[in-house]
Amino acid sequence: MMNGNFLLPAIFVATFALSRIPGLLPPDFSVAYAFAFCAGVFFRGALAWWLPLATLLLTDAALNLLYYQVPPFAGYLLLNYLVYALLIGLGKRFGRKAPVFRLVLGGLAGAVVFYLVTNTLSWLQDAAYAKTVAGWIQALTAGRPDFHPTTWEMFRNTLLSGGLFTALFVAAGKLTAESPAEKNAGQRAPDKTGEAESEPEPEEAQA
Question: Containing domain of residue 120, as a range?
Answer without folding.
Answer: 4-178
